[in-house]
Amino acid sequence: MKNTLFEGQLVRLVPIEPERDSRNISTWSKDSDYSRLLDISPAVMYNPKLVQNWYEKGEQHEHVFMIQTLEDDRMIGFINLGGINWAAGTGWVGIGIGDPGYRGKGYGTDAMKVLLYYAFTELNLHRIDLDVFEFNRRAIRSYEKAGFKYEGTERERIFKEDQRWDILNMGILKSDWELLQEEHFVEMKSESRVSA
Amino acid sequence: MENTMIGKSLFTGRQVELTELDPEKDAQAISIWTKQPAFNRKFFNSTFKPRPMSEVKKKLQEMLKEADENRQAIYFAIRKINSPELIGMLWFPWVDAQHQTSSMYLSFGEREDLASLGQEALDLATYYAFMELSLHRLAVTLGADEPEWIALIEENGFLREVLRRENIFTEGHYLDEYVYALLKPEWKERQSRRS
Lengths: 196, 195
Known about the structure:
The complex is a heterodimer of chains A (196) and B (195).
Chain A: E1 11-15, H1 18-28, H2 32-38, H3 48-57, E2 64-69, E3 75-85, E4 90-97, H4 107-121, E5 127-133, H5 137-146, E6 149-160, E7 163-173, H6 174-195
Parallel strand pairs in A: 4-5
Antiparallel strand pairs in A: 1-2, 2-3, 3-4, 5-7, 6-7
Chain B: E1 16-19, H1 23-33, H2 37-44, H3 53-70, E2 74-80, E3 86-92, E4 101-103, E5 105-108, H4 111-132, E6 137-143, H5 147-155, E7 159-170, E8 173-183, H6 184-194
Parallel strand pairs in B: 4-6
Antiparallel strand pairs in B: 1-2, 2-3, 3-5, 6-8, 7-8
């Protein structure tokens, strides 16, 4: 069993502190690339007070975490497990790496792996899914690395830049995830045999 | 320009019509439908249990109030022409005007009504979606426990786009869930072939 449930190789997930984190979240909303990769709603900016208010109200954000680097405790993004149906054991996940210096370097993938560990071993969920926009190739690769499988394409779901774009759907079952853990364990054993 | 817009009803078919919902009068029929897992899933979006009339009435009142305030959801009752009895519901839970898309739910209380009137209700629904809401994309989410709906939707050109594996849990089993969608050019093409 892991000593620290919420800690991966590069990041840890920590609870949101509305006063501390609302400034970061507000700053990230000023980056239109970030907004357009995260959400199909129109890109808008949020002032810190408004963001703080969302999180202080809070019940719907029960499983939202900030992503913090292990190396220097920097807050680089957030991850949110939502829409949980406890009877079916299903939910969706959303993630944003707000600090551009930390995109494409494995931090998001690591945060996702930590979240999946929590979702499957602690919350006992059966399945997690997510939507990702066709133009977000980096995210698609990251989700595949974390174990998500492609489940289909919602055609022409987005209308921006005077063009229509698809949304890809991806999902991971607990059984998919367990198989990955076994494969990872076998890999670790064979690596340690080679190095011995 | 020729006026093709005025002089036809968006709401009236040959056998069925779309009307407003009335929480006072319609709650009883809907309360009976909540015994069906698939209806319950869509209407309440939470754990399956049959709901009393009082709870359905409250839910209807809340839904209609929110729809009136936010102008994002649209609800219709489906009735046989000149009959007050509620036989089905059509609703667009979130019309996304920016992207010209929406999902749609269509339900009948009785299987027989779906078999005999489903096509006509679907024709009214798709016409309203594409020609009044001016959608580009119309999506329908169905569970593997709704084979009659799946057949009707597929016959009408909706494409199965997404298969969410084991997304539904009912009667001790996991079932797949599907997202179907029809795009406006596809619908228009089918309309021109039918006429």
